[in-house]
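Exercise 3.2. Students should predict the tertiary structure of the chain below and write it as structure tokens, then compare their answer with the key that follows.

Predict this chain's 3D structure.
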Amino acid sequence: MVYLRSALFNLAFYIVLVFLIIAGTPLLLMDYRYIFKLAHVWGRTSLWLLDKICGLKVEFRGVEKIPKGGFLIAPKHQSIWETFALLTHFDDFTFVLKRELTYIPFFGWYLPKARQIAIDRAKGGKALEQVTERAREVLAAGRAIFIFPEGTRRPPGAPPKYKFGVAQVYGETGARCLPVALNSGLFWPRRSFVRRPGKVLVEFLDPIEPGLDKQVFLAELQARIEAACNRLNQEAVQARPELRTVLVEGSRA
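Answer key:
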């Protein structure tokens, strides 16, 4: 039944996504903030479909810790899940994303309109300079910036591989940083169409204030997120012991 429910959800998920992308094209001629309203519809609809079709719910903790104004959001990245689920809690935001996404027909048109930061990762240090420069503008406008500290999806239980980019942006912009822990990869694994039943746990942690040395900040960010993710993973395993095998597999990544 898990495979059947997963297949039904995936079909519904992409039908809804394509419908919203096409139906929302008039928004490309309007103020960019309307794109975020469309994104919220996508996120909430996707969470509803996951609940009704796959039996996968979500619990957000620490929402009261989300700062106001411009700040960095540094979530653990385990799955596509967080790319639509987390944004439901933010009104105006920018993702740091790879430039190739802007080449996708229709979908890619929304990214520059919504003032997202698209980078050419092949440029290395120059790309980081571009992110830092754009980040200053975004933060000054009172907007939030999503930066995945590891740069790509990592399975739950995998050894952490945090990159210096988030520390560079933190240090050069003087922004607060909101760490986000989660265990979405237990239920929506990367490179898999399976959507397991259960409850995704998301925890917004205490913000890290500006002023720390970059290396100190990066170590603190990793320590906070990894400790909280380990706790959330164990909480999920206690509720569904069969998920322990997912953590074991992830530890080998």
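Discussion points: Strands lie at 56-61, 71-75, 93-98, 117-119, 144-146, 177-182, 198-204. DSSP finds eight helices and seven strands in the chain.
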